[in-house]
UniProtKB/TrEMBL annotation:
<keyword id="KW-0804">Transcription</keyword>
<dbReference type="Pfam" id="PF12833">
    <property type="entry name" value="HTH_18"/>
</dbReference>
<keyword id="KW-0238">DNA-binding</keyword>
<dbReference type="InterPro" id="IPR018060">
    <property type="entry name" value="HTH_AraC"/>
</dbReference>
<dbReference type="InterPro" id="IPR009057">
    <property type="entry name" value="Homeodomain-like_sf"/>
</dbReference>
<dbReference type="InterPro" id="IPR020449">
    <property type="entry name" value="Tscrpt_reg_AraC-type_HTH"/>
</dbReference>
<feature type="domain" description="HTH araC/xylS-type">
    <location>
        <begin position="186"/>
        <end position="284"/>
    </location>
</feature>
<protein>
    <submittedName>
        <fullName>Helix-turn-helix transcriptional regulator</fullName>
    </submittedName>
</protein>
<keyword id="KW-0805">Transcription regulation</keyword>
Length: 288
């Protein structure tokens, strides 16, 4: 775990989307940042620091200060990625230049205002199931949007850099690497979350990951300890609980949004899971 020292003054210097073409390969030999890369869709391979990761949607990769990285996109379904670049220590005496050094000859490679320690940020692989990694990608999306708006607000991006490194301290990458689930399962889990209001059969979910129904069921059982339908039910009821606690929706409206067309059946399932009725659950919430 890499803790943020009180004297550190990190700043976000770059963030962007990139959509690879079929089989495209890119090598960046001298990336002077701590980088976070998340896969939006598609897949491919990322190599850095003597390691290689086969990645697809929902994977997040962290790369250390001053790294060499190679991207190899799949020929079928090349990946679409988001990238985020943080300089861990950027001297206050110098104005921040919002650009990432990554090629030989770039004067920013020897910028005396930029500092980092390659040993402090180990290469790591995680998924969106890791809350810290997921929040980093959310900050990355914010950075992309703000950088696209034009004027660079140094204090904003210094504050954002600090938040990102706080989340990085909770990354716990060694645990995440050991427990990371297969990409096919992540695809199915993401599909379920995005289509939670719709009827979800094993066949439909398996199709999202281009695998057989047997393989889909086996992946859920092996990595979650539950059948696919049991996992879907948990996701539905967890989302229902969140809606009941954070909105003023009626029980029947919540039931529809989480894939239960019959409110009575939903109420019974909810009571079995939470021990109280949806109405009582919502009533116990403090409203603004």
């Amino acid at each position: 775990m890499t803790l943020l020292h009180p004297d550190d003054d990190p700043v976000v210097v770059g963030a962007n989307w990139y959509r690879f073409t079929s089989g495209e390969q890119i090598v960046n030999p001298h990336v002077m940042s701590v980088s976070f890369i998340w896969i939006v869709s598609g897949g491919g391979e990322i190599r850095a620091g003597g390691q290689s990761w086969t990645v697809d949607a929902q994977h997040v990769v962290r790369l250390p200060w001053h790294h060499r990285v190679e991207y190899r996109a799949n020929r079928r379904g090349p990946f679409h990625i988001g990238t985020l670049h943080v300089v861990p220590r950027y001297d206050r005496s110098a104005p921040v230049i919002p650009r990432v050094a990554h090629l030989p000859g770039d004067p920013l490679l020897d910028d005396p205002a930029r500092h980092g320690d390659a040993a402090a940020f180990r290469p790591g692989l995680s998924t969106m199931r890791n809350a810290a990694a997921r929040r980093i990608t959310e900050f990355g999306t914010i950075a992309i949007e703000r950088l696209g708006e034009g004027a660079f607000d140094e204090e904003y991006f210094r504050a954002l850099g600090r938040l990102i490194l706080f989340e990085n301290a909770a990354w716990a990458d060694s645990h995440a690497q050991q427990t990371a689930v297969p990409g096919s399962l992540e695809l199915m889990m993401t599909f379920i979350r995005h289509h939670i209001a719709e009827p979800l059969t094993v066949a439909r979910v398996a199709e999202a990951a281009r695998c057989s129904e047997t393989t889909a069921q086996r992946l859920f059982t092996r990595h979650t300890g539950e059948s696919m339908q049991a996992w879907i039910r948990q996701v539905r009821l967890r989302e229902a609980g969140s809606l009941l606690r954070t909105t003023g929706m009626r029980v029947s409206e919540v039931a529809q949004l989480v894939g239960y067309p019959d409110p009575l059946y939903f109420s019974r399932a909810f009571r079995r899971a939470y021990g109280v009725s949806p109405t009582q659950f919502a009533r116990d919430t403090v409203r603004p």
